[in-house]
Amino acid sequence: MASTMLARSSTRSLVSTLQLRVTVPISSRCYATGHSIPPLNDQSLLKSKAFIHGEWVNADSGKTFEVKDPSTGKLITHVAELDVAETQRAIRSANDALASFRRTTAKERSRFLRKWYDLTVAHTDDLAKIITWENGKPLADARGEVNYAATFIEWFAEQATRIDGAVLPASIPGNRVLVTKEPVGVCGLITPWNFPAAMITRKLAPAIAAGCTTVSKAPGETPLTALALAELAARAGLPPGVMNVVTSLANTPAVGETLATDPLVRKISFTGSTNVGRLLMKQASGTIKKCSFELGGNAPFIVFDDADVDAAVTGAITSKFRSSGQTCVCANRLYIQEGIYEEFATKFAEKVKGFKIGGGYGEGVTHGPLIHDRAVSKAESHVQDALSQGATVMIGGQKLPDLGSNFFQPTVLRDMKPDMLLAHEETFGPVAGLFPFKTEAEVVTLANNTEVGLAGYFFSKDVQRIWRVAEALEVGMIGVNTGLISDAASPFGGIKQSGFGREGSIYGIDEYLVMKSITLGGMGGDLQN
Ligand SMILES: NC(=O)c1ccc[n+]([C@@H]2O[C@H](COP(=O)([O-])OP(=O)(O)OC[C@H]3O[C@@H](n4cnc5c(N)ncnc54)[C@H](O)[C@@H]3O)[C@@H](O)[C@H]2O)c1
Ligand SMILES: O=CCCC(=O)O
Questions:
Q1: Could you tell me which of 52, 81, 82 has the C-alpha nearest to residue 64?
Q2: CA–CA separation, 386 vs 431, rounded Å?
Q3: How far is the CA of 343 from the centre of ligand 2 (A)?
Q4: Closest-approaching ligand to the CA atom of 371
Q5: Ligand 1 in reach of 281 Cβ (< 6 A)
C-alpha cells in the first residue's frame, strides 16, 4: 500500500515537473529536475510502474530505481524495481493470454497494430521529449527515432496478413504435405537504452503480428519510453497479457535469467552487447528456446580512391556520429585509401567542427551527451590508447566537464594503426579513427579481422569493385555509397559474434513463427463413379 502511494506520488511529481517547469523538491523519493523540459501534451504517458496483465504495478518489495537525465545527471523519477516473482507473474500473464490471442485473425492483429501505429505517430512530440529526457539525444533525433519506431509497427501491421503456408509434393505415394506457420508462443524481449522506442517496437510489432504474447524487459536507463509505448498499446485495445513490460535496473540479471530459463517462455530476442547475449544464450539453452540476438558491432567504413569524397564524408558523418556514436551500426573504423586520405580527413574534420554539443532540448544542438560516465571513460580510453601509439588528434579528444559529466567532444583521430584498441573494440562513442590503407585486398583483410560482423560500409564508383567487396566483407548488413542502412524494409542483423536472426523486413516475422507440417495420407486415389 505504502509503495503504491509512493509510486503514485512519483508519477504526480514527474507530471508536476513538466507542468511547472520549475526546480522544486516535491518528495524525498522524486523531485523536479532542475532543468525544464518542454511540457507534454499528454502527461498521462509518463509512467513509473511496470505493466503486467493490463495493470500498472509496483514491485512487491516497494523498491524502485532512479532514472536520471544523462544531460544533467539529475533525477527524473523512480521506477519500480521488479524481481523474479513479478517477472514470473508477467510470464504467466502472457501464457494465459496466449490461448486466445494466438487464435485471433491476422486481420484483427493487423488492425490493432495499425491503431497502435496511429497513436504512436499522434504522440510523436511527447514520445520524443521523453526519449530526449532519459536518453539525451537531441530532440530532432528523438523525433526521427519515434518515426523509425513507428515504421516497424506499420510494417508488421501489413506483414501480419501475409503469413502464409505451403502445399508440398510428398515423396510417399498418397500423402500430401501442408505447411502452416504458428506463433512460437510467449516471447521474452530484452532491449537496450540507445533506441528506447525503436528497439522495442522492432521486436514487439512482429511478435504481436505473429500472434505471440510478450514480456518485455525495458532498459533500466530508459524505461519511460517503453512504458509510454505500452500505455499507447493499451489504448489501442491490446488485450491484457499480450504485452507485459517489466522494469528493473539492479535486478536486471535475475529478471533476464528468469525470462531465459522459464519453460513457459518459448523465444528470447535480445538486443545488446555480445557478452550479455552469450550469457542469455547459455541460459536459454536449458529449455532450447528459439533465440535471436542482435549484438555488438565494430563496423568498418571504407573509402576507396575512386569514391565521391564529398558523399563519403557525408556518409561517414551520418554513420559515425548518429546518436553520438552510440549505435551498433555506427562506423567504428574508418579506412581511407592513400590517394584521398588527406582530402577526406580535412573535409571530415571540418564537418565535425560544425557540430553543436549540448543538452538535447537546446536550440540547434546536433549531438547530446553519452548515456553515462562509463561510456565517456571508454571513449577517453580509446583516444588515449591511440595517442600513446602515434595517432594525432585533428579535433576533439577531451571530456566536456563544463557541459556535464557525460559529455565528450566529437573526436577525429588520424594516422591510426591496426593494433590500436579502437580497431578491435566497439567504441560506442563519438570517436572517429582514420586508418590509411593501400589496396583493396589489404583493407578487406583488415575489415574482417574481428570476431563480430554486424554492419560495414564502403564508397566506390566501380561496379565490379562494389560486387567484389560486398561479397568479401564478413558482415550482415552493407551500406554501399551510403552511411544510413536502417530501414524497416531491410533485414537487420549480424553474423559471427554479432548474433543471428533478422529484424524488420519480410523476414523479421519468421523469428516469431514456428513451422508445422501436416501430412495427409490416403490422398489422390482414383475418382469415384
Ligand atoms: N545489434 C544490434 O541491433 C544492437 C542494437 C543496439 C545495441 N547493441 C549493442 O549493445 C551494446 C550497448 O548497449 P549496453 O552496453 O547497454 O548493452 P548491454 O548488453 O549491457 O545491455 C543491453 C540490455 O540488456 C540488459 N541486460 C544487461 N545485463 C543483462 C543480463 N545479465 N541479463 C539480461 N539482460 C541484461 C540491459 O538492461 C539492457 O536493457 C553495444 O555492444 C551495441 O553494439 C546492438
Ligand atoms: O543500435 C542499434 C540499432 C540502430 C538501428 O536500428 O539503426
A1: 81
A2: 11
A3: 29
A4: 1
A5: no
pLDDT tens for 321-357 read: 999 999 999 999 999 999 999 999 999 999 999 999 9
With CA atoms as reference, report the closest residue to 233 among 118, 130, 320.
118
Ligand 2 atom nearest to 294, measured from its CA? 2
Q: How far is the CA of 486 from the centre of ligand 2 (A)?
A: 7
Tell the burial category of 266 from Cβ atoms under 10 Å away from its Cβ (0-12, 13-18, 19+): buried
Q: Is 55 a catalytic residue?
A: no
The response to whether residue 476 sits with its C-beta less than 6 Å from ligand 1 reads: no
Domains and CATH numbers, the chain: 43-294 (3.40.605.10), 299-480 (3.40.309.10)
Residue pointed to by grid coordinates 588520424: 414
Identify the pLDDT of residue 525: 87
CA distance 284 to 245: 20
Phi/psi of residue 139, nearest 5 degrees: -55, -40
Q: What is the ipTM of this complex?
A: 0.94
Q: Which of 86, 294, 440, 503 is catalytic?
A: 294
Would you say the CB of residue 511 lies under 6 angstroms from ligand 1?
no
Q: How far apart are CA 498 and CA 496, in angstroms?
A: 5
Q: What is the pTM of this model?
A: 0.93
Residue 323 CA to ligand 2 center (angstroms) comes to 10
Q: Is the dihedral of CA 331, 333, 337, 340 positive or negative?
A: positive
pLDDT, tens digit, for every residue of 146-159? 999 999 999 999 99
Ligand 1 mutation pick, 87, 190, 373, max ligand atoms within 8 A of CB: 190
Phi then psi for residue 441, to 5 deg, are -65, -40
pLDDT band at 36 (very low <50, low <70, confident <90, very high): low
Pairwise CA distance, residues 493 & 271, whole Å: 10
**Measured in angstroms, how far is the CA atom of residue 150 from the centroid of ligand 1?**
21
300 lines ligand 1 (CB under 6 A): no
Here the cell at position 116 is 497502435
Cα atoms in the Cβ-side hemisphere of radius 13 Å centred on 88: 8
In whole angstroms, give the CA distance from residue 209 to residue 279.
28
Query: Is residue 208 exposed (0-12), middle (13-18) or buried (19+ Cβ within 10 Å)?
Result: buried
**Residues 6 or more apart from 478 whose CB is under 8 A from it?**
455, 456, 457, 458, 470, 485
Distance 257 CA to ligand 1 centre (A): 14
Residue 273 Cβ inside 6 Å of ligand 1? The answer reads yes
What share of the chain has pLDDT > 70, as a percent? 93
Give 174's DSSP letter. Answer: T
